[in-house]
Amino acid sequence: MRAKAKITYGGGATDWFRFGGGERILAIIPGMSIKPISHSAEAIADAFAAFAEDYTVYVFGRGRKVREDCTIETLAEDVAEAMDGLGLRRANVFAVSLGGMIALRLALARPDLVGSLALCSTCAGMDGHGRAETAKWAELADSGDGTALCREMIKFIYSPEFVSANREAFGFLETMGEPDDISRIARLARAGAGFDAAPELGKITCPAFVLGSECDALIAPEAMRALAEGLGCGIYMYEGYGHAVYDEAPDFRGRLKAFFDSIR
Asked: What is the rounded CA–CA span in Å between residue 210 and residue 259?
């Protein structure tokens, strides 16, 4: 039986925690969430337990007090400041959804921090559908209706089959969300809607890999293929899972680790 990983917490403009004791560095940048990452620390450490022997894993989230005028650029600057403070360089970076946009900007602005890049369920710039849906999230957040916001996000992030199989957990999620948590979503959703790195993708030269799902209801599969083409890298697209394929596909983390392990 694997022992639980020891988790060390930090904070600032970017909340972070770490676990594992390997020589290699893995930096994870999650997507949007109602609650700060500290609420999911044990679950993330358990999910990525296979990395803990070979990697020291850092997870970088957004603090509860996200500035009103935040952009993907300012969010990437916050992550860079945290990585500088921790003395991290040439990290293997895994990022999903909004976190993928932050990771792209980080790789463009601070290539010294990013040694390799695995991006899941993300794009270099949202299409009209993605902008319209995240605008709806922002409007629901502005209204203060946390239950409606959670229901709308769940509908677009997870496949119906996954929601049905985990109905009790999702019912609990719908009751979460304090005013500060909900306001974070509005600001982050608007930051993602204004992002466009497509013209600059050719400047990213580190090894990269794109993963996604053909059934993603938020980010168009064509946008993920365009991202891989712009980066000149490999792509793997799953069938039958939602936007949160990183949670749903049982072989996802094994595939991810194989990519990072191949880079020396």
From this structure: 10
Residue 173 has pLDDT above 70, yes or no: no
Tens of pLDDT, residue by residue over 3-31, are 567 899 887 778 899 999 999 999 999 99
- Cα three-residue angle 196-73-82, rounded to 5 degrees: 140
Structure tokens at 229: 């083409």
Please write the tens of the pLDDT for every residue from 186-212.
999 999 998 999 999 999 999 999 999
CA distance 123 to 228: 9
Percentage above 70 pLDDT, the chain: 94
Contact 145, 153 (CB under 8 A): no
Instruction: Please give the model's pTM, rounded to 2 decimal places.
Output: 0.94
Would you state the structure tokens that stand for residue 104, as one six-digit string?
């792209």
136's tokens:
């709806």
Let me know: does 184 contact 61? Beta carbons within 8 Å: no
Q: Which helix (H) or strand (E) holds 29?
A: strand 24-29
Q: In what order do the strands lie in the sheet with 16-19?
A: 8-10, 16-19, 55-60, 24-29, 91-96, 114-120, 208-213, 234-238
Domain 8-127+196-261: which topology?
Rossmann fold (3.40.50)
- The burial class, CB within 10 Å (0-12 / 13-18 / 19+), for 26 is buried
Rounded CA-CA distance 122/78 in Å is 20
Domain boundaries, the chain: 8-127+196-261
